[in-house]
Amino acid sequence: MGKWWQEEVVYQIYPRSFQDSNGDGIGDIPGIISRLDEIKALGVGIIWLSPVYKSPDADNGYDISDYMDINPKFGTMADMERLFKEAKARGIRIIMDLVINHTSDEHKWFQESRDKDSPYRDYYIWRPGRMGGKLPPNNWTGFFMGSTWEYDEKSGEYYLHLFDKKQPDLNYHNPKVLNEVKEILRFWLDKGAAGFRCDVINVIYKTSLKDGKPAIAIRGLEHYKSQEGNHRILKELRKDVLSKYDCFTVGETVMVDLDEAKMLCEPEREELDMVFYFDHLEVDRRVARYVPKKFKAKKLLEVLAKWQRGLSWNAVYLENHDQPRIVSHYGDEGKYWARSAKMLATLLLTLKGTPYIYQGQEIGMTNFDYPDMSSLDDVESKNVYKLMRKLQIPAKTAWDWIRMSSRDNARTPMQWSQEEGAGFTTGTPWLPINGNYKEINYQDQHEVNGSVYRFYQRMIAFRAGNETLKYGEFVPLFGDDDTIVYAREGGGEHLVVALNFSPEQKEIPLEGEVLISNTGRSEYDGKLGPYESIVMRH
Ligand code: TEU
Ligand code: CA
């Protein structure tokens, strides 16, 4: 037995796309409450709630204007308290999204800070421009493309923003900022939060503001990624606040490598409990995931082996609100849709670590089916598209790449049923619903044996009852262009998992008793069918 957050499976909710309760087309907190029984029935023990705080929504809530209040689109603080209570009654814990690299420019700290004499001036990173103010203070470029500096007329200086210009970065050289953050943590932990998913947590401390070395994208990174000051902050938050509660943290750590991750989440470091890294979702991507390259299963196995064996505990995920749908990415949207979705469920739930399922993943939701840029909402997609066009990438190619990787792929509303509005809303959804909701929806799958949903449910239950799957060592056994085989060892058992990422049958010699198969077979004959997955006891 490990800690509760190692035993459980996490379900990520992107509130605006989960369940609308009042017909305004936007998912909300009462909507989430109305679906808690469904979440429980899947076998989930923890919810990660993407931001529900007050926000002008320039980046869908990742731009917070009041950390201790709720976005009226989603409901009220009373609704939020009811959500904690109702979840608890079902044995579900909730972790909140902690976005502390930046606030919204509409946060009162920032508004005050535009005044040079304000006590809030040092809450943010203000610098005069170069060349008499005409050029930004340095050459850094941000995560959403373009300079990381925005000129502010009112104070005649520039402020730093690693993300959108409506997301000014906080200044962690100022101890007052960290004190504010501690108050925010306490506020939510006292309300009942069981921990935090910490947004871009490895870039919050800027050691220097010197020019960055040449880079295609995200110039300046070496001055703020995984700095000593960053570790100091995490240790302090842990010691002063988090250690006083029964909670855990998962850090979203951008462009992180294994050595950096170890420094952030190995238990003896007393910083984070686990981290989200990205390598395993980028084996078929170049340049910040918008440019494709050929998928090789063997490469995926290498990446998995490195991280699975390198960290004591992993955060295991294949989807979130920033990533394309996994069935559209490593699976098949056509003939083998259901089978490949189940194969990917097998992957997710047989790795070592806490598994995270993103809403809709459990029914095999696919990427959006929009015809062009006009349906998109995501600020990143829009900026990246603009940049691609500026770099003379043909419109057709730029659109293909956006369609493949846009964050809006994951953000289309949850498909609950065949009803109009997919059971998500009775109004006009804030982002168009995927046209396949009549074929892919919760209600149909919930009722059908052998559905993707039922398979997730079964895999979750299987993991819950199997110590080897939870805590056994990960051992890579075999990989080629299309297939991978690995073992989980320990707990007195030896499990072998074989996965086929291709539409062709593959000969893979394996021995043992079949425990779980996504094709329903009980004997293995040495041939792994298209997108087949199999878990065996050896
Ligand atoms: O994302 C951080 C981040 O850098 C990447 O996920 C990025 O959005 C993209 O995948 C790079 O191509 C976090 C949040 O998850 C995201 O939704 C926010 O937009 C971002 O931080 C800013 O808060
Ligand atoms: Ca609503």
List keywords for this structure.
538 residues; alpha/beta; TIM Barrel; Oligo-1,6-glucosidase, domain 2; Immunoglobulin-like; five-stranded antiparallel beta sheet; 16 helices; 28% helix; globular; binds 1-O-alpha-D-glucopyranosyl-D-fructose; binds calcium ion
Write the layout of secondary structure elements.
Layout: H1 4-7, E1 10-13, H2 29-34, H3 36-42, E2 46-49, E3 53-54, E4 66-70, H4 77-89, E5 93-98, H5 108-113, E6 126-127, E7 149-152, E8 157-160, H6 175-191, E9 195-198, H7 228-240, E10 248-252, H8 258-265, E11 274-276, E12 285-286, E13 291-292, H9 297-310, E14 315-317, H10 326-329, H11 337-349, E15 354-358, H12 379-390, H13 395-405, H14 442-447, H15 452-464, H16 467-471, E16 473-479, E17 483-490, E18 493-500, E19 506-507, E20 513-517, E21 527-528, E22 533-537
Parallel strand pairs: 1-2, 1-15, 2-5, 5-9, 9-10, 10-11, 14-15
Antiparallel strand pairs: 3-4, 6-8, 7-8, 12-13, 16-17, 17-18, 18-22, 19-21, 20-22
Family: Belongs to the glycosyl hydrolase 13 family.
Domain Glycosyl hydrolase family 13 catalytic: 12-411
Protein name: Alpha-glucosidase
Report what the structure shows.
The protein has 3 domains: 341 residues, Glycosidases (TIM Barrel); 53 residues, Oligo-1,6-glucosidase, Domain 2 (Oligo-1,6-glucosidase, domain 2, Alpha-Beta Complex); 65 residues, Golgi alpha-mannosidase II (Immunoglobulin-like), CATH 2.60.40. It starts with a helix and ends with a strand. It is globular. Helix content is 28%, strand content 17%. The chain is an alpha/beta fold. An 8-stranded parallel sheet has the order 11-10-9-5-2-1-15-14. The chain has a 5-stranded antiparallel sheet with strand order 16-17-18-22-20. Bound molecules: 1-O-alpha-D-glucopyranosyl-D-fructose and calcium ion. Calcium ion (CA) binds next to loops.
